[in-house]
Structures are given as structure tokens and as C-alpha cells.
Amino acid sequence: MKPDPNLIWIITLMVLVQLASLYLVKDLDWKWVIFWSYVFGSSINHSMTLGIHEISHNFPFGHHRVLWNRWFGIFANLPLGVPYSISFKRYHMDHHRYLGVGGLDVGIPTDFEVWFFCTTFRKLAWVIFQPLFVIFRPLVINPKPISHLEIINAVAQITFDIIVYYVFGIKSLVYMLAASLLGLGLHPISGQLIADHCMCLKGHETYSYYGPLNFLTFNVGYHNEHHDFPNIPGKNLPLVRKTAAEYYDKLPHHYSWIKVLYDFVMDDTRSPYSRVRRFQRGK
Fold first, then answer.
1. What kind and span of H or E run contains 253?
2. Residue 194 and residue 264: Cα distance in Å, rounded?
3. Mapped to the 3 state alphabet, what secondary structure does 110-127 carry?
4. Phi and psi at residue 248, in whole multiples of 5°?
């Protein structure tokens, strides 16, 4: 349970790579802008959201430099195109404290999502547009007063988007925004958004993933380990599993996020309803 300063250099390099990509795509045909947005940019941007997840736990600079982590999160947010980092921090802590509690854990789909997205085609649409639900669901389930850091996050992001438009052009701006939409939608890595807590077996609420995509996602696949020890940075979670193999190896887990996506869409027994839900205390 200690900071991981290597995150500072890894995430900074990811931001620089996306900045270089904005320059490289500015004169491409539109079909290639979208192609590279899905094939390359989407992977970087999804990975960046998980870098922001690491930042939300204060892993880059440690708990004694909390504000440094918030500023770094705003910096890491830039390639995503939409303000995300500060709000994610506020709601993600609720996700750990109140896992599955209605009205507090915004990872729980809304009643509308549960009711409407119940067929194969509708579940596919839900997966494709999942980033929109991730962004707007908190405003429905658990709206919070806007903080000054969220305002700074939004102003910094909008300013960056305007600079991208005027320096590189509309194609680079579309590349950046499309990369976030596609990377969190129908994309191999986005199986993570479903795999973490979709109840595949009755009675099991959280599932780990032990496949190769952990390399691109700061080991977020080690999700049981992460929820048991949220103060251990992602790079050390494989060690947690190794140390306590007699516990974790017996739990159901995944080896393919692509299979998770396929099963979620095609299996009639799985839907946004497939979550462990709890009432708030006293209700």
C-alpha cells in the first residue's frame, strides 16, 4: 500500500502519444480518421480512463499530496475531450463505500436501462452507447453540487478542445471525441465495464479478469483484489492474487472481455438487470 510514481511518466507519455496522434490525423480522409480513432485512439483513451481511476485513488503522488493528484487527473483528462476526472473521483469513492446500493452507487443501471435494454438488439445498443450512460447516469441517480475543481476541470477541457480545433482542425477534434465514444462502447477493452460486476453466477457480485488486456488497463481486471484492497496500486494487484491464491483462484473469474461482451448481448439471462442491488440503510 504505497504510491506508484511510475504512473506519472506512463500517463504523461500516453497524453503525449495522443497529442502526436492529433497532428498525424489532421490531414487524413474521414474514413481513416474514424479507422484510426477506433483501432488506436480508442485503446489509448479507454486506458486513460483507467489511468484516471488510478489517479482517483491517489496512487501517482500518494495521499499526502492529494491536490497534486487532482491536478494530474485534469491533465490526464485532456485527450478524452470531455471533463471527467474530478467527477469520476467523487462518484468512484461512493462505488467503493456503497457497492450496489441504489441511489449511491452510480455504476448501477437506472430503472429505465433495466426495463428497456432487455433484448439482444437493445443490449447491443446499450453496449455501443455505454459511455453516454456512464456520463449522464450520475445526474439521474445521485446528483451532487458542482465543486470548484469540477469547474476548473471543465474549463481546462473546453479550452484544450478549442485549441485542438484551431491548431489541428475539425478532424483531430472528431478523432479525439470519437476515440472516447468508441473506446468505451463496442470495443474489446470495454468488456471490462460489464465484467467487473455483472452477476454471471448467482451470489457472486465482483469478478476478476486474468487476461492479457490487463497490460493496457493498469491491472483493473484484478477487480476482486482491487475491491478488497483499494489502497494497493494496480501494478501490485497480481502480487495480491499470488499471495492469497487459495482465496482468489477459487472465485469465478474471466479470461476474455470479448467473450463477456458476446455473452452479455446474446445470453437472454444477462442484461443491465444482472447486478447485485442493495437498499440504502433505513429504506
1. strand 253-254
2. 8
3. CHHHHHHCCCHHHHHHHH
4. -75, -35
Question: How far is the C-alpha of 13 from the C-alpha of 11, rounded, in Å?
Answer: 5
CA distance 79 to 68: 19
pLDDT tens by residue, 124-148: 999 999 999 998 999 999 999 999 9
Query: Residue 41 half-sphere exposure, CB side, CA atoms within 13 Å?
Result: 29
What tens digit of pLDDT does each residue of 267-281 get? Answer: 999 999 999 988 887
Q: What is the mean pLDDT of residues 141-168?
A: 97
Spell out a b/e string for 184-205, using b for 16 or more CB atoms within 10 Å of the CB, else e: bbbbbbbbbbbbbbbbbeeeeb
Other CB atoms within a 10 A radius of the CB of residue 243 amount to 12
CB 14 within 8 A of CB 54: no
Residues 6+ apart with CB under 8 A from 171: 25, 26, 27, 28, 30, 33
Q: What span, in angstroms and rounded, lies between the C-alpha atoms of 72 and 86?
A: 10
